[in-house]
Amino acid sequence: MSKTDIRSLSLDQIKKFFLENGHQEYRADQVYSWLWEKSVLNFEQMTNLSKSIRAILKENFVINHIKVETIQKSKDGTIKNAVKLFDDLLVECVLIPTKNRITACISSQVGCSLNCKFCATSKLKRMRNLNPDEIYDQVALISDQSRDYYNRPLTNIVFMGMGEPLMNYNNVIQSIKMITSKKGLGMSPRRIVVSTSGIPKMIKKMADENVKFKLAVSLHSAIDDVRTSIMPFNEKLKLSELKLALQYWYSKTKRIITYEYVIWKGINDTIEDAKALVDFCKFAPSKVNIIQYNSIDNDEFIQASKSNIDLYQNILEKNNINVTVRKSRGQDIDAACGQLANKPS
Ligand code: SAH
Fold first, then answer.
1. What's the gap in Å between 341 CA and the centre of ligand 1?
2. Domains of the chain: total
């Protein structure tokens, strides 16, 4: 039988284990600190525990820490890691440095079950959800790289890597608890963005649970037919439902929503498309991030012309909608939005 990963246990469960094995409870606090705060790879590294305690831990548990398989560095400073999980599956996570920030872009699933046609990850079958510790490890890894490569602390975390975070809800929430805990990485939830392609039921659940992180929605079109043609799941989860969920989110959290939006030639680059987006933005306080399209070898999708993007931006601004046009990062190493697909380096 395979051993339990000790990081699937809560602090109380580890305390119980020690008590049942004739040791004092405070040993659990020590172990917990090694596991999370210090992110050790094995029990031998827990140097303030006796050999015999380390031995019973080893007898009963494993630590399934992620392993870095490859590291690629972009000329703009972006670092992409392919990391191997205990069952040999791979996911990617990315460090994105800017003048004032260092952001970790984290994966939540191996592959993705959604089928957004413009996204490279959607070409990978969804193999499984990541466990909370596997999500946490990506952040801890990038936090270390941030110090090692840039001598600066990690400042922000975005769940914009592989997978749909809200389809792995419990594990994502659990990982954020540890990322924000003083017993973990102690990051502020306000520096975390969870990005979803828009699962109304889960957005409402998050609002009910009073989560403290920020929400981004990959909108890409505010017209049902257009959105369904590029994000087929929209057929069942219509924009009207998404809108209601987002209004609910705002009413409960009072936190504005970011819409991520790519503009493609001949798909969503007309004035009508822009006006539909304006209307959509009026339902709940929000802002729009227009992101650059990163090519994924699919001829259907071509970035809209600069003049059409400017037009969009103007229409949004005239309607007092806060809009930013974002440059892409790490394109040369396939580390940019929508390019994470475990391509060999
Ligand atoms: N599933 C979540 C998390 C992935 S985030 C979500 O959809 O939000 C990845 C972001 O990159 C999303 O906004 C996605 O729509 C966007 N994206 C996907 N493919 C892209 C591409 N080829 N170019 C630019 N952005 C892309």
1. 12
2. 2
